[in-house]
C-alpha cells in the first residue's frame, strides 16, 4: 500500500504488534496495514495453519530466529532469556542486522509496522535499536483468552493446555514488562473481530495516532478479510483444567490485559 513520504527530520512511526502466537496478531497486522502502515518488502506467505496470511516481515522474523538460535532457545521455550543477553557477543552483531534490515525494508516509510510474536520476548534488544533508526515506537498488545489460544495450538500441534498457557503467560508478561514506559494500547481478538472499527478508533485515541488512511475508506476491504465466525470462543472456559500453580498467574494476567483494554491503569509492581 502506498505510504506517505516522510520529512528527514521526523522519525518514523513504528507500530509493534505484540502478544502470544494464535492471539489475533495476524488479523490486526493486516488491518493496520490497510490503515496505512507498511509491512516491508518481504512478507511471509500464507500457510495451511494461517490461510489468511501471517502479515509478518520475513526478513525480520529471520533475524529474530537467529537471535533465538544464538541464545540456544526457540519461540516455544518458556524459560527466561539469559541475564545480559542483549550485550552478549552472539547477539550484538544481530542487533546491527536488525537495524540494517529495518533500513532496507522501510527506508522512506513514515509509518511501518512490525508484527511478530517473538518481538514480545526480544523487546529489550529492540529498545536499544529505536534511537539508532530513529523511530517513534508505539506498542499494541494483542491478547486472546489463554484457553482459546491453547485450543488453537492444540488444533495445530500436539501441545497440552498447561504448556500452551505457560507460553501464553511468558509472552504476555514480557510484553507487559518491557512496554510499561512506552506508548501502548491493548486489544483483544474478540474486540477486534466483533467491531474492528471501534477497536482501531480506540487504539488511535490511546496512542495519539492519526491513521494514515481513514478507516471508513477501507471498511469493505477489512470486512471482506475479517471473519467474525473465526473468533467464536467458548464463554465458559474452565481454568480448573490448568495446574493450580499456573492457573492463578494465567487468570490474573488475563484480567490485567482486560482491565488495560478498558483503560484502567496498570501498576508495574502488579506484573
Protein model, in words:
The chain is α/β, with parallel strands linked by helices. It is 45% helix and 10% strand. It has helices at 25-34, 58-70, 92-106, 119-130, 146-156, 161-178, 189-194, 196-207, 219-225, 244-261, and strands at 12-18, 111-115, 135-143, 184-188. The chain has a 4-stranded parallel β-sheet, with helices on both faces. Helix 2 (58-70) runs antiparallel to helix 3, helix 4 packs parallel to helix 6 and helix 5 packs across helix 6 (161-178). The radius of gyration is 18 Å and the shape is globular. Mean pLDDT is 91; it is low at 1-5.
In short:
The chain is α/β, with parallel strands linked by helices. The chain is built from ten helices and four strands. Helix content is 45%, strand content 10%.
Draw up the topology in text:
Layout: E1 12-18, H1 25-34, H2 58-70, H3 92-106, E2 111-115, H4 119-130, E3 135-143, H5 146-156, H6 161-178, E4 184-188, H7 189-194, H8 196-207, H9 219-225, H10 244-261
Parallel strand pairs: 1-2, 1-3, 3-4
Helix pairs in contact: 2-3, 3-4, 4-6, 5-6, 6-10
Amino acid at each position: 500500500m502506498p505510504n506517505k513520504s516522510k520529512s528527514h527530520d521526523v522519525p518514523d512511526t513504528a507500530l509493534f504488534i505484540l502478544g502470544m502466537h494464535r492471539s489475533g496478531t495476524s488479523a490486526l497486522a493486516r488491518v493496520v496495514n490497510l490503515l496505512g502502515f507498511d509491512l516491508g518488502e518481504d512478507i511471509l506467505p500464507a500457510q495451511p495453519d494461517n490461510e489468511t496470511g501471517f502479515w509478518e516481515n520475513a526478513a525480520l522474523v529471520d533475524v529474530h530466529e537467529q537471535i533465538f538460535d544464538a541464545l540456544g532457545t526457540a519461540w516455544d521455550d518458556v524459560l527466561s532469556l539469559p541475564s545480559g543477553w542483549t550485550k552478549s557477543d552472539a547477539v550484538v552483531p544481530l542487533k546491527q542486522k536488525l537495524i540494517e534490515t529495518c533500513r532496507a525494508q522501510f527506508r522512506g516509510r513514515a509509518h511501518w509496522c512490525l508484527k511478530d510474536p517473538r518481538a514480545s520476548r526480544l523487546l529489550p534488544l529492540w529498545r536499544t535499536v529505536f534511537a539508532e533508526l530513529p523511530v517513534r515506537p508505539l506498542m499494541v498488545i494483542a491478547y486472546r483468552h489463554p484457553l482459546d489460544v491453547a485450543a488453537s495450538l492444540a488444533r495445530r500441534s500436539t501441545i497440552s493446555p498447561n504448556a500452551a498457557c505457560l507460553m501464553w503467560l511468558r509472552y504476555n508478561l514480557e510484553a507487559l514488562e518491557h512496554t510499561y514506559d512506552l506508548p501502548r494500547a491493548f486489544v483483544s481478538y474478540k474486540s477486534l473481530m466483533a467491531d474492528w472499527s471501534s477497536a482501531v478508533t480506540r487504539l488511535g485515541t490511546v496512542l495519539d495516532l492519526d491513521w494514515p488512511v481513514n478507516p471508513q475508506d477501507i471498511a469493505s476491504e477489512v470486512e471482506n478479510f475479517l471473519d467474525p465466525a473465526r473468533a467464536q470462543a467458548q464463554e465458559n472456559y474452565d481454568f480448573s483444567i490448568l495446574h493450580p500453580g499456573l492457573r492463578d498467574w494465567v487468570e490474573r494476567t488475563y484480567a490485567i490485559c482486560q482491565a488495560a483494554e478498558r483503560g484502567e491503569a496498570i501498576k508495574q509492581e502488579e506484573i
